[in-house]
Amino acid sequence: MKIRYFAWMREHTGVSSEELVLPAEINTVGQLAEHLKAMSDGHKIALRNMKTVRVAVNQKYAQLDSQISDHDEVAFFPPVTGG
Amino acid sequence: MGKVIVTEDDFDIAQEMASLKQSGVGAIASFVGIVRDHADGPSLIAMTLEHYEGMTEQEISSIIDIACDRWPLADVTVIHRIGRLLPHENIVFVGTASAHREAAFESAHFIMDYLKTSAPFWKQEETEAGASWVDARDSDDTALEKWR
Which one of B58, B112, B119 has the shortest CB-CB distance to A80? Predict the structure, then answer.
């Protein structure tokens, strides 16, 4: 699957996107975030407060309990500030 | 319906208004967002906008669809710039065309309010103190309440 990070979360993870084989025991966005936190100190910082993080699955807004599968694109980003 | 453009290039306001006028209706309303020259105090050197390509266009299109269900609109244009912008440069254009001024005014306001809270753009400000990401404002979320 493809994981995307934006804005200051991207700066912490050090990558804007990465490929991952979704472990069989992970079914939701929230579980995925916990898994990603273990990848590096930067990932841990980027994903430390999931209450303020916005998530999207296949480019649509999703929730931490949204179901995911290995062919999904999951994005993590801060609250948006356009306009 | 409508036109959605996300681009590094500037837009020509007169040209966009003329394009909306082609719809032949009696009212066109527009909003233009411009880069400020200060960042809550210090002078702003530049502002860089990042976005989630693909999702941005989809989100803006779905906001336009909601607006079209709510108001009788003949045409809508939304242009949002990305990349590094200097103070006084254009950031965003929203234009709506309708037979009625209320529909044109209100829908342009509605589209801007929703764009600010759901279109995946992020602003980073550059000042003499360095670069910092702009925090989302609670006032942008409360602005949505008037449309519920």
Answer: B119
pTM: 0.95
Residue with tokens 């700066």: A11
Which domain, by its residues, includes A24?
2-77
Nearest CA in chain A to B51: A6
How many structural domains compose chain B?
1
Residue A36 lies in a domain: yes
Question: Encoding tokens for residue B22?
Answer: 């082609």
Answer whether residue B74 shows pLDDT above 90. yes
Residue B40 pLDDT exceeds 90:
no
Q: What is the spatial order of strands in the sheet that A54-57 belongs to?
A: A17-19, A2-5, A73-77, A54-57, A60-62
Could you read off the pLDDT of B119-141 as tens digits, one per residue? 999 999 999 999 999 999 889 98
CATH code for position A57:
3.10.20.30
Structural domains counted in chain A: 1
- Would residue A63 count as lying in a domain? yes
Contact (CB<8Å) A80/B116: yes
Least confident of A73-82, B14-23, B39-48, B88-97: B39-48
